[in-house]
């Protein structure tokens, strides 16, 4: 007779089929605050089974929580390319295989243990803002079904299943008040052409807008993304030299007798969605091409009544014609965005993405095309070289986390951080093959170094590298061997035109919650006390982006200590 096993694991465990994850202790504490989300995993397996045995199913139920549980199955996703060769010893594995990542809502709260395989259900709770504070004894029960009708009409009955049930318990501790709102500016680059291509819908059709709205809703309401890359023109990102991506330009451009005019109707629709779902900042695509600022972005216009592309790879960055366009476009765009609720304080502009140290002159020339037109605006770019900041070329550096230390040593104010495929050694990242704690530690590090913004390029990039073709993200998770799996996208495209979350997205959400909790702690007890709390159980001092606690235990314990101190300090006031 099969021997079944059910137990709880933290949200920082990755449940592989052939590895038993660490279990939560019976009655373990999990702290959260009103208006926030928390999660655990129900892990299950069958230790053995007879050949051809009917698969026994179990109904999962939850009692005692202050909100209904959302049940999502943790699905295994393929990775043929889990890491680059320059990885480190802290990867879970460097071998290709199946990795737990996709979270798919369960049609029914039923699980079927498979012999010799561990599987998991992701249980999450959106705690209401008016939830009563206190400790909730939560019980997760898996009860065997005794009688089922099979799809072929055959009735399956198993008398031995009578009374077969497993109860797993933990204590959910809800704080007395919500945490302060998120102050970190957080952008994950939004690729609407990928949505149009994956779902096979025309750009700007009604169905396109429905799908875009679904993905914006999830970004703003579910994943703490409060700045959105807004395609006023088609972003010149991940595009081969001489190539182009599908046109998703929101702003209508007309040039009649050499004079420009603009139609902002679609931009108004976009910003309306952003405001509706809590996106406080707008991010304008790069005004010049990626990796060197050599050329102009793709811009389509109606020229004397004829639709044509007027800028692109064939037009150099120092073009006088492009300067004339910017002189008309940028002032009109700034005025319109302010009218739509996004003044200069809530809009960020880019010159060119990831310029290298050898491209300083090209970047300076490109910047010169727009600098006067962006006076008083936020200008930020992802880079690794301190040289650009020292020369005053990038007022707001967005630093790769493996090159950020020189910026920190120089006390650069208003610093942002990013990681992407290249950041695979020692520093935090969110590849399939990395432990979840390696992503969540970013919340602590961003607090320690007073980071103001976090950028990632891949919210929903469903293309091969350089956008040479679209891909099926359920089968190809590495951008056609362009990036380690887990880098190109954070959410999956669901069948109904709405995104499906991932373990990586949920863990990153917890990192943002950790950051907010630490900021709350600082308001209550001061910076010195909060930093002392962070280092209480850390084996290194100082903690850096390459040297930080590994594994789940440190972060789980820190959450509980911070929650305990917040509640203590609040009660004393």
Q: What would the principal axes of the Cα set say about the shape?
A: globular
Indicate the low-confidence ranges by residue numbers. none
Distance N terminus to C terminus?
A: 59 Å
Number of distinct helices: 11
How would you name the oligomeric state of the polypeptide chains in this document? single chain
C-alpha-based Rg, rounded: 25 Å
Number of extended strands: 26
| Average pLDDT number | 96
- Largest sheet strand order: 13-24-23-22-21-20-17-14
Find the structural class using helix and strand composition: alpha/beta
Largest sheet: 8 strands, parallel
Helix content: 10-25%
Kindly give the count of domains.
2
Determine the strand fraction and express it as a percent band. Answer: 25-35%
Provide a brief overview of the structure.
With 573 residues, the chain is of the alpha/beta class. It contains eleven helices and 26 strands.
Structural notes for this entry:
The chain folds into two domains: 4-174, Immunoglobulin-like (Sandwich); 185-385 and 406-423 and 452-509, no CATH class. The protein is 25% helix and 25% strand. The protein contains eleven helices and 26 strands. The chain has helices at 192-199, 206-222, 265-276, 320-339, 360-370, 387-390, 405-409, 437-448, 503-525, 527-535, 552-572, and strands at residues 4-10, 28-32, 37-46, 58-63, 69-79, 97-105, 110-111, 119-126, 134-144, 147-149, 155-157, 165-174, 185-188, 227-229, 252-256, 259-263, 281-286, 299-303, 306-311, 347-350, 378-383, 396-400, 416-418, 453-456, 492-493, 499-500. The radius of gyration is 25 Å and the shape is globular. The chain starts with a strand and ends with a helix.
């Amino acid at each position: 007779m099969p021997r079944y096993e059910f137990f709880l694991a933290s949200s920082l465990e990755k449940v592989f089929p052939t590895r038993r994850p660490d279990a939560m202790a019976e009655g373990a504490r999990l702290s959260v605050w009103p208006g926030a989300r928390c999660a655990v995993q129900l892990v299950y397996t069958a230790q053995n089974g007879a050949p051809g045995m009917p698969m026994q199913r179990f109904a999962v139920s939850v009692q005692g929580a202050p909100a209904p549980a959302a049940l999502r199955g943790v699905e295994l996703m393929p990775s043929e390319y889990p890491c680059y060769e320059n990885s480190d010893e802290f990867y879970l594995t460097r071998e290709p295989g199946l990795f737990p990542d996709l979270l798919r809502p369960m049609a029914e709260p039923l699980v079927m243990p498979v012999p010799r395989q561990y599987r998991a259900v992701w249980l999450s709770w959106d705690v209401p803002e008016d939830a009563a504070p206190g400790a909730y004894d939560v019980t997760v029960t898996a009860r065997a079904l005794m009688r089922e009708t099979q799809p072929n009409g055959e009735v399956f009955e198993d008398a031995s299943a009578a009374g077969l049930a497993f109860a797993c318990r933990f204590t959910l501790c809800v704080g007395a008040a919500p945490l302060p709102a998120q102050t970190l500016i957080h952008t994950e680059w939004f690729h609407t052409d990928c949505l149009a291509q994956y779902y096979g819908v025309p750009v700007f059709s009604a169905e396109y807008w429905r799908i875009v709205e679904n993905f914006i809703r999830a970004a703003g309401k579910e994943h703490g993304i409060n700045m959105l890359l807004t395609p006023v023109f088609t972003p010149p990102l991940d595009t081969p030299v001489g190539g182009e991506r599908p046109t998703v330009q929101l702003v209508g451009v007309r040039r009649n007798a050499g004079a420009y005019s603009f139609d902002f109707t679609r931009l108004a629709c976009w910003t309306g969605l952003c405001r509706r779902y809590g996106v406080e900042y707008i991010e304008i695509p790069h005004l010049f091409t990626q990796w060197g600022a050599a050329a102009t972005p793709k811009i389509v216009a109606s020229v004397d009544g004829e639709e044509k592309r007027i800028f692109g790879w064939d037009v150099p960055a120092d073009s006088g014609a492009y300067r004339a366009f910017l002189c008309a476009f940028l002032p009109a765009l700034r005025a319109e965005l302010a009218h739509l609720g996004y003044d200069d304080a809530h809009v960020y502009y880019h010159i060119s993405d990831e310029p290298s140290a050898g491209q300083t002159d090209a970047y300076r020339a490109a910047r010169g095309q727009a600098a006067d037109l962006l006076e008083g605006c936020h200008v930020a770019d992802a880079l690794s070289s301190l040289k650009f900041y020292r020369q005053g070329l990038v007022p707001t550096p967005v630093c790769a986390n493996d090159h950020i230390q020189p910026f920190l040593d120089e006390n650069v104010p208003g610093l942002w951080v990013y990681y992407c495929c290249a950041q695979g050694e020692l520093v935090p990242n969110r590849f399939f093959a990395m432990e979840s704690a390696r992503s969540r530690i970013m919340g602590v590090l961003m607090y320690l170094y007073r980071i103001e913004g976090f950028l990632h390029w891949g919210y929903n990039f469903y293309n091969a590298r350089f956008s040479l073709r679209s891909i099926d993200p359920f089968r190809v998770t590495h951008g056609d061997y362009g990036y380690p799996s887990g880098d190109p996208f954070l959410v999956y495209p669901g069948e109904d035109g709405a995104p499906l979350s991932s373990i990586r997205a949920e863990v990153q959400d917890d990192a943002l919650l950790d950051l907010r909790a630490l900021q709350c702690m600082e308001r209550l007890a001061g910076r010195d006390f909060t930093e002392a709390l962070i280092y209480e159980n850390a084996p290194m001092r100082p903690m850096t982006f390459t040297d930080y606690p590994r594994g789940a235990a440190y972060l789980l314990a820190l959450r509980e200590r911070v929650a305990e101190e917040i509640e203590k300090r609040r009660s004393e006031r």
